[in-house]
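A favour, since you know our structure tokens better than I do. Just paste the record in under my message, thanks.
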Amino acid sequence: MSLTFAWQPAAAAADTVGLQLPGDPAVATMIAAEQALLALTNADRAANGLGALEADPDTLAIARERAASQINAPSLSHFNAAGNLAFVDLLSAASVPYVLAGENLARAYDNDPAVTERIETALMHSPLHRKNILEKTFNRVAIGVATDGNGQITFAEVYRD
């Protein structure tokens, strides 16, 4: 666990929706899924001649909040109740600077060992999601995961320059 938390600031962990004690196996599974999706995202960037994205601890709580907000939603949505891009409002509220930012959302209904590979493949096959993954301007990403305990897993990727 100590390596896992090396890239995750304590403030982000405290603000994260649904997290319990650091020794909680569900938390370890979610963090492992976040890290696995980051590795797959960076592999796709490398395969397309782009540099790796750095894990962004400044937006990790935002990514996790966005993932949690999509659990049990009828459909994934980038917009909040006010009709604004939710991640943009959250970045602003947290005073996180950026010139360009983007968000990918994805959901699966079973959490098997290949779920992150299936999610990354689906994102790369979607033109708009692929555009975020391969955006040359982006150099940071936070990947948040949320689960509902019934097999549903939701991912949110928050990109910025």
Notes: Residues 45 and 58 are 22 Å apart (CA to CA). The helical segments are 10-15, 25-47, 60-70, 86-93, 115-125, 127-133. The first helix runs from residue 10 to 15.
